[in-house]
Amino acid sequence: MVISTEGLTFTFGHQQVVKSLSLNVPEGSIYGFLGPNGAGKTTTIKLLLNLLQMQEGSIRIFDKDLKSNRIEILSQIGSLIEQPAIYAHLTGKENLLNRALLLQVPASRVDDMLKLVHLTDAAHKKAGQYSLGMKQRLGIALALLSDPKLLILDEPTNGLDPNGIIEVRELLIKLVTKHNKTVFISSHLLAEVERMATHVGIINYGELLFQGSIKDLEGLSQPLVQIETDNTVDAANFLTRNHFNVTEVNDHHFFTPYTSKQQMGEINALLNKNGFTIYSINKQQKDLEKLFLDITQTA
Fold first, then answer.
1. What is the three-state SS of 230-292?
2. Most C-beta atoms within 10 A of its C-beta, which of 36, 218, 230, 238?
3. Helix (H, G, I), strand (E, B) or coil at 154
């Protein structure tokens, strides 16, 4: 495990923000650390980076105790917490050269990083004129400058438009698959994490509700088919009699677990053939709220 915590607990005043957290982040993984705003994600990341003093529990990174090997461990970690610390009046390249000087990293790494994050063409443009996606990619380039083994990113897609989100996602997948990095990324966006993560931890009110591979998560977050007809209850009963698993019925819609596009076509044809008018039929991904409910109900 690249990151391993046991009983990690942190309290601000009288409020316990992190509660006996035990994380296991495998080497070569993209570990999605999921939870709503205020769940304890940023506090956990600050503890992992030794920006907050550990109160209870233990943190091991690269199989070494963080407390007694702090400098050695932190020198092998690159991080980006929320917004990247960039100088708006400097160009992208100047920002990287400035950081390389501070870290005593060869200046030749700068061009390599610009190429890696696809900012070579914008190298001489002022960073203040960068789009949000470009700023995030520059922030990741800054974090990668010292060639760390582990990258810790706190909400790196926050505030990005769809193109920016795709850019960051593709970059992180490339870092793991082609550059042998391990990435620990926090987010409150379930659907986005599912597109890139290999492993997931879900936290709420400081407690770890779920930890496992993305395949384990898929069992919990299986998408649903939402169906709206002219007679919701009768249509739901009809599908149940025809061996479809109807999971929820309300005044306007009913739901059945999604398995394939073909299955949606079969449901549509079957209901039409038997006199039901279909107003809408679509695939719906579970959001974090529904997933939390499922996890807490099964716990």
1. CCHHHHHHHHHHCCCCCCEECCCCEEEECCCHHHHHHHHHHHHHCCCCEEEEEEECCCHHHHH
2. 238
3. strand
**Distances in whole angstroms, Cα of residue 110 to Cα of each of 55, 197, 280:** 38, 28, 52
Establish how many alpha carbons lie within 13 A of residue 253's alpha carbon, considering only the half-sphere containing its beta carbon.
13
pTM for this entry: 0.75
- 105-134 residue pLDDT tens: 888 888 888 888 888 888 889 988 888 778
List Cβ neighbours of 247 (8 Å cut-off, separation of 6 or more): 224, 255, 256, 257
Q: Which domains does the chain have, with CATH numbers?
A: 3-215 (3.40.50.300), 222-298 (3.30.70.120)
Task: Fill in the amino acid letter for 219.
Answer: G
Residue 52 in this model has a pLDDT that exceeds 80: yes
